[in-house]
Amino acid sequence: MASRKGASPSLLWAKSMQRTALAITRTNLRAGNKAIDQAVARTVRSLRKHAEPPPGAGDWLSGFAVGPAGVRRYRLFRPAGVLRSERLPLIVMLHGCAQDAGVFARSTRMNRLAARHRFLVLYPEQDRRANVQGCWNWYDTDSRKAYREAATLKAAIDQVCLFHPADRQRIALAGLSAGASMAALMATLYPQAFRAVVMHSGIPPGSAHSPISAMRAMRGRRPPDMLPAGVVWPPLLVIHGTADRVVAASNGEAAAQLWAEAAGVRGGRCSLVRRGSRRPMRVTRFARNRRTVATLCEIEGLGHAWSGGDDAQHFGDGQGPDASRMLWTFCERQFRTAA
């Protein structure tokens, strides 16, 4: 009878490697499936959160407007219990790059303020086909793209005033970064339509005329064009951080000086303000015949973010003074003055 031989070492090694590879594959599949499940769950939570209305007792409405730049979507916050017979102030909020209406509303918490003080808030949204980063094309005046976008935003404002209880005599513009720059441009194009304009971390109008010159303007290397004299420009509030590495802080000072010089004001009154543990700020007020022309708030240590905003959102800094409250206080004062 022939004797039984044992398996060869190479065969045993091959079978061992096969079992090891199979075990690794099964482990990786389980880990991969778990990672996929976690990623899907995170995505679903993010989508649900994005779909939820930002905090604030009222209605979170959607709409769109058509203008020379095409179609632009918008969101409108309307406080609860508003009657058609009422006429409420309207604050137009223009988001910055990489933001949309929902993110900007959550970051600024403006809806809560609007619910408390009863005013409407309009949040236009940039079309990513017009700018892949979601920025407003405030700088592209040579091609007239900036003017077409401004006209389309004006169409959205007019539409809201037509279909909602907005008071046309109490409309103010505000924005962050590219939104602030577009707000300032719109104020120069339609000065009679707005009672106030608020620039947070923006660039003064006339500083750039193309994408290339916009980069230099962001660094504070291009002085703005002078505003025409003899025009009553809407009062300006500028909020800018001294540690802004995206838009140079010198742009904030340049914007305030631009408004002041157009009104014939050569100097302003400075004061240092600090509220509790929040970042301190230097406030410079420019006035003519007791009428506010411009107010510059330079916030110490603030980067390129909405001061007092939600830290969990893009471009929010909870350590700074509450820019949303500052905005409303400034605008409300201008509304009363114009009444």
Account of the protein in words:
This protein starts with 8 loop residues before the first helix and ends with a helix. By secondary structure, it is an alpha/beta fold. 37% of the residues lie in helices and 24% in strands. The longest helix is centred in the first third of the chain and has 43 residues, at 9-51. The chain has eight helices and twelve strands. It folds into two domains: 12-52; 57-338, Alpha/Beta hydrolase fold, catalytic domain (Rossmann fold), CATH 3.40.50. Helix 4 packs across helix 5. The strands form two sheets. It has a ten-stranded mixed sheet with strand order 1-2-4-3-5-6-7-10-9-8, with helices on both faces. Strands 11-12 form a two-stranded parallel ribbon. The protein is elongated, with a radius of gyration of 27 Å.
